[in-house]
Design brief:
Chain lengths: ~190, ~190
DNA sequence: ACGAGGAGAATGAACGTTCATTCCGGTAGT
DNA sequence: ACTACCGGAATGAACGTTCATTCTCCTCGT
């Protein structure tokens, strides 16, 4: 296995479990089965390792969200599909999402990097919303507001469910959640 | 001014600006105009100071959300009022919200404390949702799902607006956002 | 085919820094 | 003078990072 990946994987596991501040380089090295110095052959600083982890996690999330998106389908269908993908990913990849929560609060990751990592999905989503608005089936509000509201709702539910599974009804179906999103956004 | 409050206030400002890891006790002391030792006269450890800050911030948020709630009004009106309060608070108290974001990701704050701090608002909100469901005007889904979806949407928009004001249309009205919430939840 | 030599990867003890916490000398109110 | 409280230098633990050394494996001359 590639050592670089091994280090990223080890850091991901440790940070997801113990948080950023409780994941010293020495521990990452131990979990990656290498010496502490080795990490610095692959990453300039701990910060840059963390930054790379963040970009990687966002890439996985956004590409999962867009998986199977078919531009020949109607906007409503496509949006529902993307939202279902989003919730599925958030819900099924617990470790990646816990990690993302930790990294999202990390001040050393710049706004530029965050924005850049979202460019892809934004371009798809915004075009879809524009089309929906042109068709008169979606509220005439700024794309950022619509997209953020739906994502925020889904992500917060996924997070709560992860933290306190007993509080949520055990069965939350995708249809249920995509319906919440769609009803919120439709004209 | 009470020294204890002064310390809490100083910690709040520093952590909101620089993050948890870059807010040493020595700096908190300096901003609170006292010695580092004095902080330990009022708080057992830095962790307990942070925990208290978290509870304080959540208290402010939840009581702001419920301000002016009138149980004689109809459920829809009450929910819209609470959502408007929520977004207003999130949007107008930038420092408190940045702080909450930082503390939300802090592993040393236990789940019990987090849940306890939300008890109040949950009891009001859930009763309201139950009534709405009984009246047939709200979707028949678990209260946690409904409440979390609406809050998550509002909070995520407030956060995005805080971080990247240029991306959001400058004017986002309360009516616009309460309508998103209401449309999502209504039957 | 084989062994000497070398290049680069890996190592982990050591370093300097930063931090939470402690402790003691000072100060203000009585 | 005595008490209660405060400040901030001192302390030691923990951390990120470095670097002298070791290890690994490939190359090439015989």
């Amino acid at each position: 296995m590639d050592k670089r990946e091994q280090i990223l994987e080890a850091a991901a596991n440790l940070i997801a479990e113990h948080g950023l501040q409780s994941s010293p380089v020495s521990q990452v090295a131990k979990q990656a089965c290498c010496g502490a110095g080795t990490i610095y052959r692959y990453f300039e600083t701990k910060e840059s390792l963390i930054e790379e982890l963040f970009v990687l996690m966002l890439q996985r999330l956004t590409s999962a969200c867009l998986e199977g998106d078919d531009s020949s389908h109607a906007p409503e269908q496509r949006l529902r599909h993307i939202w279902a993908n989003t919730y599925n990913y958030l819900h099924e990849n617990e470790r990646d999402c816990v990690l993302l929560d930790h990294l999202a609060a990390c001040p050393s990751i710049s706004e530029e990097i965050r924005a850049e990592a979202l460019e892809n999905i934004h371009s798809v989503l915004f075009a879809l919303l524009d089309q929906g608005k042109a068709d008169g089936i979606i509220k005439d509000l700024p794309n950022e507001v619509l997209a953020t509201f739906a994502y925020g709702g889904l992500a917060t539910i996924a997070k709560k469910r992860r933290i306190a599974p007993h509080m949520m009804g055990i069965h939350i179906s995708n249809e249920m959640l995509t319906q919440l999103c769609w009803d919120a956004l439709r004209a």
